[in-house]
Amino acid sequence: MERIFYKKNTMNNKCSLLSIAALLLMLTFSCKMSQENNNSDTIDNTPTKETTSTSALPYTITVEKNYDTGHGMHSFAFANYQGYWVMIGGRKNGFHGTAGTGSKFPTSASNDSIFVFNTNKATPYPIYKSAMPEAYKHQLSSTNMAFCQNNNMLICVGGYGSKCASGDYSDACYETYPYLTTIDLGMLIEAVVSQAPITESAFQRISDDNFRVAGGELLYVNDSYYLVFGQNYNGVYKAGRTGNYTEQIRMFELDKIGTPAMVMTNYAVISDQSGQSGADSEFHRRDLNVVPALRPDKSMGIDVYGGVFNAEDNAYPNPILINENKAAVSSTQLKNGLYDCARVLIFDSKTNNMNTTLLGGIGSQYYNQEGQIVPDSMLPFNRIISTVQHAYPRITEITQPYEQRLPGFIGANAIFVANAAIPRMDGHEEIIDLAALKANSSAPLLIGKMYGGILASGTQTQESGGSMANPNIYDVYLNWN
Fold first, then answer.
1. pLDDT tens profile 320-332
2. What's the CATH number for 3-480?
3. Is 185 helix (H, G, I), strand (E, B) or coil?
4. Is 356 exposed, middle or buried (0-12, 13-18, 19+ CB in 10 A)?
């Protein structure tokens, strides 16, 4: 059964709705150090052999380390424009921790530079770096901005960070920003690569409290922007302090995008009509996977996987399916990819299945060294590659075997970028065309790269130790079954 929620119409001019959002940031679960083959004495779960077959897919995905860039970051905004990767904001350290005094998000670990990788060249890619324009520095060096790319524009919304100097941990310094900022990628890349000053005309901004969102995701689908879930957290992050979750899918359009006259229009929200709110609501989510998903008739929808925290202080296992101005909660319960991670989107036009492969990150289980699946309610980092197969409306989770695991506890807050030569679905640059792939090859295919995210030492980390911002680039292969 699916629960259906409908759009609630609101004003089309500048919106005065209060933003309800929530405690940011990744991973506020309790943590302690363990390794993949350890069973914590606080967890009473029985390992089992993984029985899910990958035969439902004509392929598997494997990941191999390519090289260390020397620049690790996670939770950043990303764009790929004409072979140039652009990374803005995010963090340069690992998991933020929850204990102790002081800020868990010190400005000293903020990425306050603009990075450009030239992937038109052979690896190791040339890397260019520039300082942020001062007028936009605070938001664009924040963490967990919602972002998407629309042609030559990178759109960044919200984000959590500090506007004070390093070492000032007062509540007044930290906020979730109320801005939507557009960045002209052509102008930005030209300036960064040539090491010329970045003109502020490359940036345009509008301010609205509905943009005070961190840990949500932004997609541009069917000529509208969808700002999906997230939270608004103000003040220094502290364990036990809760922010406000939006519990909304916020829809809007942008008129005169990228110009000083840019305005938000046609604002509307999809809210939870079940009567539930707070952690009992399926919409009470942040730090999740939100992906464009082709339906069998080739119309575009949105699928939502995972997100935290529910009434059991755990992740939400039930996907949410968004079609235009309606959202439905699926009865399927997922175990992998329950936190933002790198994902590979592939559509099979022969079966009309939309396949979303989730590369590691965090879930409710992990593999031990005997190849057994170990359930773990503490939301462990894991090395699992899994695929959510959406044979609309049926959803199946397919877990690859232990032998095809990731080369480390990687994937959380990372990005996947498909190779330029890989065929895409018409009009959908982010989705790989499986039929076109199979028509042209039989050998394993290098379909793209994975970069950044959190590199953890085990299934759980000890506060700020035991993890780091991942500096590595990985090769991602598709192997035919």
1. 999 999 999 999 9
2. 2.120.10.80
3. helix
4. buried
